[in-house]
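**User:**
My hope is that you can spare some time for a protein that puzzles me. This is the protein in question:
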Amino acid sequence: MEDSNSQEPEFSRRRMLGMAAAIGGTQFAQMLFGSTSAQAQTPASSAGGGKPMRIAVVAQQMSAQSDQRSWAGFQQWLKKAGLDKTWQIKQTDAKGDPGQLVSQIEDAITAKSDAILVLYGTLTAAKSALDHLTASKIPFFSLDSGWQAPAIADITSNNYAMSAQTSQFMIDTLLAQGKTKANMCAVIANFHHGTRKRGKVMKTALTENEWITMKNERVIQYSGFYEATQNTVNDWLTTYGKDLDVIWCPWDEPAMAAAEVVASRGMQDKIMVIGHDGHPTALDRMRKPNYPLVCTTAQAFEVWGAYTGWLINEIVAKGGDAKKLVPVPTVEFPAPLLVRGVNIPAPGEPTYNAKDLYYIYRDRAVAGM
């Protein structure tokens, strides 16, 4: 364990993300998770025993794969850093209820937690709790909740960029098929800032590609989304089936629901499905050569959880300068574009180790320079 009075090297967010780009996803993840091979150089592993901390972790919807994966990454980092015995973690689940989320944040404030972390919260509906957080001066962090004051950081991906990638791939694929006219339908999710942004970017891309017609769209809520998507896609295939080319989905789970319906109709060679997130269950299915879901983006949910643990340790436990460690409050990790039959990670390989389709192209060129 380091002497708390010794001078520590300064690690900024910019430097950490620069390191990620320089050494690759696998090694960077090893550093965050404190693997043996990286112990000597990782800030996380320098935590040692650490000082006792009481951390409140409030999940919007722990049944969601994203919440589960980020929580697993946080716990993995905690254990590898040697802090699982000295940090007391109270984890609660709002079960999708914004009112419960507010109540659980308020409870964490009342309990005088040393830090509060919200996973995938609807913070736009939590103004009263955020006001109380500001007054309490308890350090506050969030994951993919859309930055809201007084959060020190919101850890996420660039949702605009993710949708730009999948939308461009969709357009390029249609062009490669020789299409001069194409039709699509879209499942829209406005309840979360990330999925809402993805839908808006997709529609912006269509304004530059007017040969693609949006035949219909359906706005879904999280509750019952799988069945709602399946019923909707069934209706679309009945109405537009012979003319439909694409079904766009805001994240992988409704994309899997859509893909199931497309496959059940024997239309997997006619209609492609677009997804986002890179969940392992979706990737397992995308390893099949004719699965309708053709592309997604791999968000580093586990790494988000690990990096949040690192930030809490550096800022709250060690007293590091938050403004230097988090120069801008939205901390965005890369989300590689994954394409069926091209760069889907091997079974069991963490999705945060995946290499973006276009980085594969770049590396081919660089290898010959």
